[in-house]
Write a structure and sequence with these properties.
The chain contains two helices and eight strands, in the order ααββββββββ. The chain has 137 residues and is α/β, with parallel strands linked by helices. β1 (57-63) and β2 form a beta hairpin. The structure holds copper (II) ion.
Length: 137
């Protein structure tokens, strides 16, 4: 800009129109930035409910030597996770060996994705009286 200044122009003249311009630019840039932030915030908020298919993820708790809920129906493709809340170790083992966890200590999780429809009976291999059923439709 200073290179384009005529040699005869007084310094007072050129300084006056020059100073408001960067202020306007700075303000409009700040406004643009604020607007961009709002867009990001709005998009971010609307994006949060989008992982609704994640509701296909279901948790079964293991507590007081039982699975809760004992029986559950989930859609094909659902991921089921078991979480052991007992201080005692438990396992999740399907009766026909479709899935099997190792020993789950307290607060450990085991996760399995059901990709085929069917009825899956399972039990804790340490405490065979602990049984549960997953129905996949
Ligand atoms: Cu057990």
């Amino acid at each position: 800009m200073s290179a384009a200044e005529p040699a005869f122009a007084g310094s007072e003249r050129t300084q006056l129109p020059r100073s408001p311009e960067p202020v306007i630019r700075r303000v409009s840039r700040a406004l643009l930035f604020a607007f961009a932030l709002m867009v990001v915030a709005v998009c971010g908020r609307s994006a949060t409910p989008t992982p609704a298919p994640e509701s296909a993820q279901t948790t079964i708790t293991i507590q007081n030597f039982s699975f809760s809920p004992v029986s559950m129906t989930v859609p094909v493709g659902a991921t089921v996770s078991w979480k052991n809340l007992d201080g005692e170790p438990h396992t999740v083992r399907s009766v026909d060996e479709q899935f099997r966890s190792g020993a789950l200590d307290q607060n450990d999780r085991f996760t399995f994705k059901f990709v085929k429809a069917g009825t899956y009976k399972y039990a804790c291999s340490i405490h065979p009286q602990m049984v549960g059923t997953i129905v996949v439709k």
